[in-house]
Amino acid sequence: MTDFANFLLNGITLGAIYALIAVGYTMVYGIIKLINFAHGEFYMFGAFVGYFVLTGIFAVPPQGGEPGYLALLAALLAAGVATGLLAVLVERLCYRPLRNAGRIVALLSALGVSLFFQNMGQQAVGADFRKFPPTIAETRYPRSEVPLESLKEGQVAERDLRLTYYVKAEDGRDQQRVITIANGGEAIDGAQLATARDLAASSTLPAAVHAYPRVTVSNRHLLIFLALLLVSAALYVLVMRTRFGRAMRAVSVDFEAARLMGINVDLIVSGTFFIGAFVAGICGVLAGGMTFERIDPLMGLMPGLKAFVAAVLGGIGSIPGALLGALLLGVSEKMVEAYVSSGLRDALSFGILILVLLVKPSGLLGRFEGEKV
Amino acid sequence: MSAAPILAAEQLDVFYGGIQALRGVSLDVREGELVTLIGANGAGKSTTLKTIAGILAPKSGKVRFNGAEIQGRSSHLILRDGLALCPEGRRIFPNLTVDENLDLGAYVRHDAQGVKDDVARWHATFPILKERARQLAGTLSGGEQQMLAIARALMSRPKVLMLDEPSLGLAPKLVDQIFAVLKELKGRGVTILLVEQNARQALEVADRGYVLETGRIVKHGPASDLSGDPAVRKAYLGG
Ligand SMILES: Nc1ncnc2c1ncn2[C@@H]1O[C@H](COP(=O)(O)OP(=O)(O)O)[C@@H](O)[C@H]1O
Ligand SMILES: [Mg+2]
Questions:
Q1: What CATH number does domain A2-135+218-359 carry, 2.40.37, 1.10.3470, 2.60.40, 1.20.1070?
Q2: Given A246, A256, A260, which is nearest B96 (Cβ)?
Q3: In the Cβ-directed half-sphere of B207, how many Cα atoms lie within 13 Å?
Q4: Which of A57, A237, B142, B185 is the most buried (most CB within 10 A)?
């Protein structure tokens, strides 16, 4: 049961990551009927912008640097805005001139853009993985504090007991560390308890012992959930309640009629690219960076493809569909990984893609009418 | 009738690829007038309106609106200038509610209260739109969609309204209702350029008319003269 709950939680986290990428895919498709294969590269670009803001401006060493939430916010904003602007530029230069050239031509252009960014990325920053700074100290929830003095050797721990303490890092910052005193159900070991007391005594900030249940969630994952919640709510309000959103919906069905309303269609398309890429860029920092912890110029490929599958599963063009498809895909992948075989995980995703296309191309919530001829 | 026309097309030549659809089309509309452009299917009526509205660019010729040359200008800017087109086939946004369609008609306006008042006004003119205000526009019948399309085009408070076959595909009773609305709009002083295949009713409400045949204006004059013209009667009014 605990295992299942943990797999489910991991699946939802993965799904939330896919969702943050998939909304951009689906919004762009919804408005110009283009599958923007370069969208995964926007995610990659965002991760690198975040990386350079943290290591450059905030001078965080990639190994173990935790400058905290303010730096994270700055990295997220920079990643979002820079990626959004990049997407506007890509649309202007690579897609808009092809708008009347047919969908296949635009699709090829998108593939070209994707490969271009992968290769240019490798040229510019090298092909090797880089460790992404942890940025914020990890905390797991739920937890309850237990006084260190109350722990006795030989006493059976009801839950996992861990000590959080701090040491001075090379750069003079207080660096958080965590050690396990005893796992739930085990007796507390005397030597381990003594070590914990020593570490607590020498801690540079107040140390604390916490009891954790078997199923916990990291604050990094909570951040991803929070981002998804905010993004979903913001997109709902934007699309359904604002003038821009009304214009978006109009443009998505009829460019020409939208222009006849005085809508600057190009501006709406640019705005849509900006928003989708802004979210992907943020996701690059939160997921690619802080969750997977390693970044490289090809990191956008797989998540981009998975997000595409999620968008198709949910019904490409539909934002709620992308969210639903992404969560379903994330959970399915983690379940297959856990109970069947981790090797089948990717096969499952692409199997789902083929199945959806064969059985219900409109996806779960979509209104895809097929290719117009 | 001595005032300069508010809208004028001058010697428009328009092509689709290599095929010429308009040949030297000229027409004008004065403030407060209802002018109709009639002609058979495929004569180039829609092409004329689309060119004036900026959807198509003429190969040569000019469009003057409110004292400025507007040929080649983007259609969303032409709407902002005050020239609205209610396109053929209604082209309402089916995925938006009736009221959202009306609001989009007022996309370029920033007087929230005035927009609200106008929505109320069109609700009063077309009670069905009020009844269906929160329904998706795609669920309306053809006639209801046409009412919506006309109201939506007027939501921008255009100086001139162009209508492309507003009666197309409607039951006779609804056609009468559409023409009653046009008469009412004319009564309110709205300047209108009306394209119709239904020449008889169009000439009844219009002040002046133009007859388009395979891309050329072949006749123009006061509507009553055209209604009395034997050739026009034979070709467009059923004898
Ligand atoms: N998009 C198009 N591409 C090619 N030819 C077109 C197109 N639209 C209209 N035409 C041609 O141009 C001519 C005029 O069409 P149109 O302006 O739609 O006529 P009307 O509105 O009077 O029925 C017709 O011969 C029609 O076939
Ligand atoms: Mg026509």
A1: 1.10.3470
A2: A246
A3: 16
A4: B185
